[in-house]
C-alpha cells in the first residue's frame, strides 16, 4: 500500500493533466493484452499494416509480460496538456543509469528474462533510450496522431472536466472515491492499494511536502497506479471515465480506424459527421450533433473541439432552438444531448 500524506496547502497544489507520450507507450498494452482492452481492438487492427513497418522488436519489448512499463518511458508531464515532442525530448535525456535501472525493474516484476533486443542494449542505455524515442515517435506519427489521438484526447479532456466538478461539489473525499476503487481518502492521507504482490512489496509512505500531486487519466489502466520508484513529484494514474466510447462506430477488420495511408482514398474518421449532414447544417453544427450522442457540457465540447466556449454556445443554441438538442441541468452545468429528432438527422438511432 502507498500512502500520500497531504499538508495544509498540498491539496491546493494538486492538479490534473494528461500525457500523449504516456498514452502512446501504454497503448502498446492493447497489442499485448487485447482481451483486457476490447475497446481498442478495432484500432490496433486498423494500424497493423503500418505497425509492421516500425521497429516492432523494440516496441513490443517495452511492455513486460506482466504489463509493467519502464518508468523512464512515461516521464511526469510538466503541464496539464504537454506537447508530445517536448515529452519525447525529456525521455531521450534520461540519465543512462536511470534507463538501465528502470528496464531491469520492469522485467524483475514477474521474473521474466529480458528479450533479445533489450538484452543487446541494456549495457548501452544511452543507445537504448535514443532508439526507444525514435521508435515511439514513428509509432505516434504513423499510427496514433492522425485519428486515434484526437478521439482519445476528447475522452481525457472530458474526464478532467468531470473531476473538477466532483472536487468543487463533493470535496477531496468525494473526488478520490470517484477516481478508482483502489484509492481512499481519510484525514489528509490518500491510500492506494495495488493488488499485484510486486507492487505491494514496494509500498511506502510519501510526504507530498508542498510538491503537489499530479493526477493523470489514462485509457489503458485497469486500476489506479503510481510510479513505484517514487522519484520526483508524486503522481497517480487512473482509468479515464468514458474510455469505452473509444470503440463507438468501429468494427475490427472493417475500414481503417487508424486513418488513411498515404495514397489511399479519404477515410471518414470516428465521430466525423456524414457529408450529407455537413451540407445541410454546416460543418461546426454537424460535428456537434455527431458528438452529442452522449451528454456533454459547453466547456467539455469546447475542449474536445479546440475552440472557445462562446463559439460552441452559439451553435448549441441554434441546434436546441431547432429541436435537435435537449438541455439538462447537472449541478452547476448544463448538459446537452441529441433529441430524438437530432438522432434521426444524425443517423444515430440510439436507444434511450
Automatic annotation (TrEMBL):
Segments forming domain HTH arsR-type: 275-350
Domain HTH crp-type: 288-337
Domain of life per record: Bacteria
Stretches of the chain forming a coiled coil according to its record: none
Xref: InterPro entries: ArsR-like_HTH, HTH_ArsR_DNA-bd_dom, HTH_CRP, Metal_resp_trans_reg, WH-like_DNA-bd_sf, WH_DNA-bd_sf
Keywords: DNA-binding, Transcription, Transcription regulation
Keyword rRNA-binding carried by entry: no
CDD domains according to UniProt: HTH_ARSR
Protein name per the record: ArsR/SmtB family transcription factor
